[in-house]
Structure formats: structure tokens, C-alpha cells
């Protein structure tokens, strides 16, 4: 009997050991091996960092030529001091991986279409389909071309090689207990870093900022409603706001010209296309530079305020790089070398999205179902069919065939989104071309003056950005930089006929003819994603979501500014004034002034709106009522654009308000779901009642008698895995179309102010997160409270090692092996 009980006990013990050390599927995810995960010696407990954890250490690293000193300040910002560039970039890669390895790898897997390798195909193959979409957009194809360009230049080649080597040095030093938390949670281990991954990071940013095209949606609009409607509802230029550069016709160059082409496809080629996958909300940004004539100390000041999808770990990683010929500080993209936004001893720079159309879609005619040939200039041309293998976790590999044409990859065909009727559309994207943006940042990091800044930008192709600049020499400047095709009227607005090479990009705007200026009389430069130039700029700019409100508010404040201090620029970055509401709410209120049978809730709403000061501050109730009204109004106004199987885009915010005011009887304001014929007034009244009802439903769900704006907006910063426990709920003001452009999930990702003083540059910054990617670290979300309350940290910009004696010291020695 004892033997039987022993055997039973042994079997149960072995089963338990097996169970605790095995990964098990659960729904659409997997449970990690609980034995390892819960182990106090190597499991997730090892990721909980003590508050007094030391940041000092001495390590031996192979690949170094000389000793490296990394001083870590109280914000966990590393200040790297080396005696040569090779060691500088190896150390940058090493220390970035130390704090952000999982984020770096997860984001490059996402860019490359490899997430299903980590977490499986997902419910209804959602993850696998995301991966397929990434590969069908040619993300790796574009990254390969970027890497080829990097390796043709000795400086960028050295940087990416040593940065990669540094990451791998860190990876090789890890045991299971040292792995970042997410690796343990998802039960996998990091792979070797490659130079291609660095390029993927840059192309991933291009995807975030430069895929907001509407070619398919606009083609559908053209087919459904006609050219007259397109011109009425989607004008190329809305004639509002201050352009980034207003030269009033003083363009001193002879523009490249091309023969005109038809404004759209011939009717027989226009086919209604189905529903496109939903895209992220439009991302925006602000930047400006103020001349010394407008500052209290006579030194130029620069403001950096890029707005992106906010996430944890944070998008940016702050760092200082110091070596012979370089002393630069700012933020990097974890996974790519250099400082992307920042300053050095002489210059500072900041970027915003230029909103230019650098994407075209082409309708492809294949010879037969094999897709091995397609029609181009009356000839059948061979396709390049690439087999894409997806090593899906927990199931057999999936094989997809992606067809590449003269234009690029065929993203949509009869095997991908065929149910949505998105067939045989090839994707032409500027980021597929060979370019070396890494060299731009290499040179900007070392720039001494405006001339150096201009030369650095000559190497920059995309995503197109507005580069603001300020220097200790007294200059301020702005340049809209990218590789822009020369467009003919309406070109790029609709899906193009892929059977003719004449419909392709025939020429590019020369760098020296891009929109730019230096030291304007008004004493500042600024951009906020608005239209780049005045109407006299001799190149056609395809319609896009150019911003209409933030830019005007910024320029109003900057124009009135004198004796400015850094605090003034900080206040402007956090400005919650709602110019859109100031221009629209008085008219809206006029339309509901005679509304009958008001409920008590509607009376309260009107009182709140009438007394509102137009600021979307945290506690504002007027802001909540206005935004609820607006959110009800837009879909109600453009109900004709809600088609179940067809992708369509609504007119812009500004143009919608303009039409409501100026053409109140427009037929488009008649609601399809009612028998009555509505005009702008009836529409605004219905939307008002819907907005108030939504507020009341929210109050009931929250058991609240008030509706403060920050509570109603319900913002959060989400972990990349969308795990609530690793995400942060926040209370913050602002919203779309406001300088503090913080919506529910998007907002200011890095706020920096630099004062370009000759005696020594000073800088202040904050961002919504922290330097560490480890949720168990106090540095994971250290900056959030400062960020939400408009407070900034002074940056410790070190000129020498001697200034760092009080800081923690990570010492890297060349390995003796």
C-alpha cells in the first residue's frame, strides 16, 4: 500500500512540475509557465525594483575600444561619455536595451508583421491579419532600402553597427531572472538584434506619421456623389489660418513643371471599394522658435511638442551623448541610434508632422488569377511574387504570397480583404524608396549653426516633417522637409490607373524649393500641422487634414509675446483655449435659442455653455457639454457618409462649421433617417439634445451629479499589450484642435523648452511616462504627474565628466577576452 501511495504522490508531483513549467492556451492568449513565472528567485518578483536600488556598476563589455562612463541622474537619464564614436553608439545601444529591450523588440516585431509569433493568431485571426497587413504594406521592403542607404555612408553605417552590437551585448548578458517582465508573462526570450531592426523603427515612425491618405475614400466619394460634391466638401485649400511660411509670392526659384493630366480616373475604372481597416486618429504636433528680440534674456528659445499615440513604455527615451565632436541631449527612439529631437551646445531642433500626401494607390489589372503578369503601358509585365511565412505560435505556419509591381506591393487582393471588395490595389509609398534619415540626425546632433542644419536636412526624405530651429548664434528657422513628388492638379487625390507609368511620380521638388524661411520679421517661426505655404507657392499640394485652429492660437499668443521667459512657452504648450468652440459655439447657441420643451438637463446644459470661458480645463463642465454636442453633431451631419460596405471620409471640422454657418439650407444637412427635411438649425438642435442625453447617461453610469471635462474625457496611457494593470488612468485637459492637443489616447509625447544662451544652453522637459520600461520600477511612470500638471524638469546637460561626480556611475570596460 505504501508503494501505491508513493507512486500516486510521485505521479502527482511530476504532473504538478510539468504543469507549472508548461505554457497553456487560454482563450486568445497563453498562460506562462507558472513555476518559473512565480519563482521568487527568477520569476516576475525579480522585476520589482527597490526604491533605493543603486544604478552604479562596473561591467566588462566586448567590442569597446576604450573605457566608457555612463552617468545616470535622478530621472534615470543616462549621460554617456566616450573617447570615440564607435564606443558612443555601442554604449547607447547597451544602455537603451537595459531600460527598454522588450519595447524595442515588440515594436520591431509589430513593424515587421511578426506579432503572431509571440501571441498567436488571435481571436478570429485578428493578430495574424494585422501581421499580414504589415507585410503587404512592404514595411520590411522599405526598411531594407533604408538599411542599404545607411550602409553606403561610413558615419551612419558605423552608428547602426555599433548600436546593434551594444544591444546584443546586453541581450547576451541576460539570464531568465534578468528578462523584462513581458518576456516572462508571454513566455518567450529576446532574439539577436539586427541592423534591419533599427531601420524598421524609423520606417515604423513613418507609418505612424505618413499613411493618412484618403485616395480610396475620395475615389468612392467621386463615384457616389460626383466631382461637384468633392470640390464643395473637400477643397484643396480651406483658406484659414496662418501658413507655416507666408512668403506672399516671394519664391525665388523656377519651379519644376509637368504636363497636366485628367483630374481623376476615367469613369470605367472608378470602382467602389469596400471598408478599409480602421486607422489611428490623426496625430498632430506643435513647435515654434522665438527670436531673441522677443525674449527676456535676448536668447532665442525653442519649443518641441510632438503629439502621438501615448503608450507605456514611453515612445521616447531621453539621453545625452558626449564624445569628441559631439555633445547632444534630447530624446531617441528606443531601437535606433542618435538623438531625434534635442539640442547641443549650439543648436536645438524640433519636429511636427508635415501632413503631406506621400502615398498613392494604383488599380492593377492582372492577366489571370495567377497574378504572375500585370498590364503596364500596353505590355504584360512579370510580377515579383514574394512568399511570406508567418510562424504563428501554437499552430502551423501560415504562407501568404505578396505580389510586387512597378508601383510597390499589392496590398489588397482576392486573398486579403476580398470580402470588403478591396481588390488589386498596389501601394506606392515614399518610405519604400532608399533614403538615409539616420544621416540627418547624425549631422543634426553635431550641427553648429543654420548652415549645418540646412545641410543635415538635405538627407531627409520621410516622413515629411516641419523642422523648427534655434541657435546660440541668434537664428530661428523653419523648413518643411521631405521628398515631395511634383503633383499635377488633383493627382494623388484619387486611386490612379496602374496600367500607365505616366500616372506615376515624374519628378520631385528640389530640396532648395521646399517651404522654408529664416529670421522672419515677426520674430518667430511656428508649425502645428497647418497648410505649409500661402497660395502663391507654385506647387500643387494635395488635400489633406491640415490643421485649422492650433496654429492660429499659437501665432496669436506668440505675436503678443514680449520679454518672454521659458515659463511663457511652457504655458503655451499647455494652453487649453478652445478656438474652435469660440468661433462656433455662439452660432450654435443662436440655433437652439428658441428650442421648445427643454428638459431640466437641457436647461442646465445651456447655462453651462453660456457661462463657459472656452477653456477645456480639467474641471470644466462647459467643455464636456460642448464636446458631447460636437461628437453628436458630426456623424449626424454627414450621415450620408456612413455606408456599410464602402470606405468614405467626412469633411473636415473647420469646413463643416463653415458650411453650417454659410450654407444652412445645404441639402447635405437633411438627415437620412428622418422623414422631415432638416437644415443646419434643425441639425444643431437634434445634436444638442443627443449630446445632453449622452451626458446624462454618463452621469448615471458614474453616479455623478457633475461632469468635469477630465472625467468625461476619460483619458489613459495604455501599455503596449493593452493590459489594464500596466496602464495608467490620467486627468488632463485639452482635446482635438487645442494647443494642448490631448484626447483620450493621443497627446503630447515629449515637451521640451530650450533657451539658446551663449553662456550655456538651458533646457526643460517632461513626457507622459518614465525612462524605464519595467512596470516594477519607480521610473516606469515617474514623469506622469509632472506632465499632467504642466510641470517640467530641468535637464542636466553636462559639459564634462567633472560636472557628473555626484551622479551614479555605470562604468563599461573593454572585455579582456
From TrEMBL:
Gene3D superfamilies: 1.10.1400.10, 2.30.120.10, Glutamine Phosphoribosylpyrophosphate, subunit 1, domain 1 (3.60.20.10), Penicillin Amidohydrolase, domain 1 (1.10.439.10). Binds 1 Ca(2+) ion per dimer. GO terms for biological process: antibiotic biosynthetic process. Its cofactor is Ca(2+). Ca(2+) binds at residues 357, 359-360. InterPro entries: Ntn_hydrolases_N, Pen/GL7ACA/AHL_acylase, Penicillin_amidase_A-knob, Penicillin_amidase_dom1, Penicillin_amidase_N_B-knob, S45. The active site is at 285 (nucleophile). One of its GO terms (molecular function) is metal ion binding. Keywords: Calcium, Hydrolase, Metal-binding, Zymogen. It comes from the Bacteria. Belongs to the peptidase S45 family. PANTHER family: ACYL-HOMOSERINE LACTONE ACYLASE QUIP, PEPTIDASE S45 PENICILLIN AMIDASE. This is Penicillin acylase family protein. It comes from Chryseotalea sanaruensis.
Amino acid at each position: 500500500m505504501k508503494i501505491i501511495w508513493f507512486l500516486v504522490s510521485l505521479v502527482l508531483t511530476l504532473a504538478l512540475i510539468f504543469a507549472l513549467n508548461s505554457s497553456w492556451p487560454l482563450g486568445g492568449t497563453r498562460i506562462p509557465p507558472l513555476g518559473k513565472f512565480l519563482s521568487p528567485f527568477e520569476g516576475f518578483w525579480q522585476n520589482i525594483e527597490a526604491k533605493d536600488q543603486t544604478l552604479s556598476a562596473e561591467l566588462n563589455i566586448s567590442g569597446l575600444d576604450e573605457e566608457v562612463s555612463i552617468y545616470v541622474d535622478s530621472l534615470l537619464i543616462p549621460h554617456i561619455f566616450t573617447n570615440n564614436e564607435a564606443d558612443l553608439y555601442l554604449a547607447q545601444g547597451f544602455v537603451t536595451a537595459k531600460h527598454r529591450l522588450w519595447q524595442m523588440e515588440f515594436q520591431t516585431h509589430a513593424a515587421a508583421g511578426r506579432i503572431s509569433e509571440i501571441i498567436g493568431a488571435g481571436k478570429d485571426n485578428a493578430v495574424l491579419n494585422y501581421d499580414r497587413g504589415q507585410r503587404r504594406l512592404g514595411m520590411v521592403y522599405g526598411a531594407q532600402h533604408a538599411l542599404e542607404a545607411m550602409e553606403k555612408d561610413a558615419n551612419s553605417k558605423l552608428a547602426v553597427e555599433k548600436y546593434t552590437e551594444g544591444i546584443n551585448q546586453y541581450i547576451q548578458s541576460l539570464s531568465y531572472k534578468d528578462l523584462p517582465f513581458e518576456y516572462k508573462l508571454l513566455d518567450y526570450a529576446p532574439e539577436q538584434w539586427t541592423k534591419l531592426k533599427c531601420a524598421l523603427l524609423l520606417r515604423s515612425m513613418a507609418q505612424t506619421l505618413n499613411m493618412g491618405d484618403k485616395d480610396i475614400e475620395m475615389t468612392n466619394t467621386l463615384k457616389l456623389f460626383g466631382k461637384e460634391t468633392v470640390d464643395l466638401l473637400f477643397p484643396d485649400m480651406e483658406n484659414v489660418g496662418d501658413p507655416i511660411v507666408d512668403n506672399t509670392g516671394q519664391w525665388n526659384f523656377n519651379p519644376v513643371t509637368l504636363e497636366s493630366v485628367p483630374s481623376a480616373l476615367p469613369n470605367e475604372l472608378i470602382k467602389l471599394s469596400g471598408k478599409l481597416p480602421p486607422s489611428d486618429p490623426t496625430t498632430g504636433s506643435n513647435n515654434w522658435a522665438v527670436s531673441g528680440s522677443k525674449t527676456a534674456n535676448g536668447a532665442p528659445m525653442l519649443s518641441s511638442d510632438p503629439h502621438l499615440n501615448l503608450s507605456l513604455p514611453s515612445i521616447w527615451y531621453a539621453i545625452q551623448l558626449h564624445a569628441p565632436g559631439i555633445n547632444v541631449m534630447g530624446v531617441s527612439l528606443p531601437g535606433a541610434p542618435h538623438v531625434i529631437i534635442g539640442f547641443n551646445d549650439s543648436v536645438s531642433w524640433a519636429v511636427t508632422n508635415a501632413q503631406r500626401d506621400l502615398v498613392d494607390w494604383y488599380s492593377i489589372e492582372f492577366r489571370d488569377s495567377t497574378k504572375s503578369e500585370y498590364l503596364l503601358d500596353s505590355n504584360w509585365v512579370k510580377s515579383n511574387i514574394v512568399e511570406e511565412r508567418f510562424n504563428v505560435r501554437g499552430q502551423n505556419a501560415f504562407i501568404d504570397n505578396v505580389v510586387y509591381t512597378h508601383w510597390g506591393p499589392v496590398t489588397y487582393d482576392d486573398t486579403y480583404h476580398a470580402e470588403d471588395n478591396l481588390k488589386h490595389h498596389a501601394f506606392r509609398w515614399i518610405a519604400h524608396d532608399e533614403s538615409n534619415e539616420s544621416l540627418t540626425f547624425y549631422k543634426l546632433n553635431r550641427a553648429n549653426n543654420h548652415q549645418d542644419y540646412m545641410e543635415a536636412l538635405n538627407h531627409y526624405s520621410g516622413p515629411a516633417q516641419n523642422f523648427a530651429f534655434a541657435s546660440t548664434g541668434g537664428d530661428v528657422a523653419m523648413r518643411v522637409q521631405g521628398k515631395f513628388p511634383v503633383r499635377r492638379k488633383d493627382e494623388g487625390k484619387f486611386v490612379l490607373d496602374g496600367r500607365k507609368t505616366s500616372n506615376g511620380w515624374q519628378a520631385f521638388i528640389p530640396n532648395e524649393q521646399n517651404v522654408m524661411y529664416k529670421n522672419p520679421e515677426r520674430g518667430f517661426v511656428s508649425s502645428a500641422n497647418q497648410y505649409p505655404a500661402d497660395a502663391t507657392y507654385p506647387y500643387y499640394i494635395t488635400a489633406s487634414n491640415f490643421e485649422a485652429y492650433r496654429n492660429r492660437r499659437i501665432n496669436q499668443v506668440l505675436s503678443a509675446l514680449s520679454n518672454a521667459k521659458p515659463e511663457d512657452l511652457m504655458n503655451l504648450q499647455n494652453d487649453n483655449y478652445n478656438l474652435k468652440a469660440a468661433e462656433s459655439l455662439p452660432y450654435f447657441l443662436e440655433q437652439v435659442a428658441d428650442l421648445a420643451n427643454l428638459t431640466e438637463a437641457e436647461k442646465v446644459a445651456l447655462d453651462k455653455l453660456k457661462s463657459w470661458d472656452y477653456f477645456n480645463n480639467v474641471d470644466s463642465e462647459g467643455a464636456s457639454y460642448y464636446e458631447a454636442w460636437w461628437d453628436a453633431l458630426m456623424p449626424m451631419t454627414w450621415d450620408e457618409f456612413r455606408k456599410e460596405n464602402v470606405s468614405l471620409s467626412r469633411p473636415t471640422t473647420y469646413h463643416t462649421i463653415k458650411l453650417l454657418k454659410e450654407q444652412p439650407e445645404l441639402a447635405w444637412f437633411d438627415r437620412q433617417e428622418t422623414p422631415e427635411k432638416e437644415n443646419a438649425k434643425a441639425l444643431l438642435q437634434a445634436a444638442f439634445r443627443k449630446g445632453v442625453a449622452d451626458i446624462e447617461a454618463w452621469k448615471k453610469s458614474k453616479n455623478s451629479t457633475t461632469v468635469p471635462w477630465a472625467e468625461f474625457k476619460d483619458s489613459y496611457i495604455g501599455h503596449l499589450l493593452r493590459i489594464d494593470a500596466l496602464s495608467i488612468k490620467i486627468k488632463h485637459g485639452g482635446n482635438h484642435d487645442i494647443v494642448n492637443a490631448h484626447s483620450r489616447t493621443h497627446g503630447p509625447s515629449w515637451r521640451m523648452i530650450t533657451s539658446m544662451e551663449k553662456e550655456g544652453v538651458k533646457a526643460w522637459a517632461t513626457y507622459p511616462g518614465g525612462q524605464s520600461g519595467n512596470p516594477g520600477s519607480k521610473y516606469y511612470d515617474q514623469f506622469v504627474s509632472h506632465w499632467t500638471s504642466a510641470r517640467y524638469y530641468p535637464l542636466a546637460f553636462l559639459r564634462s565628466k567633472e560636472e557628473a561626480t555626484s551622479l551614479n556611475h555605470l562604468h563599461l570596460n573593454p572585455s579582456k577576452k
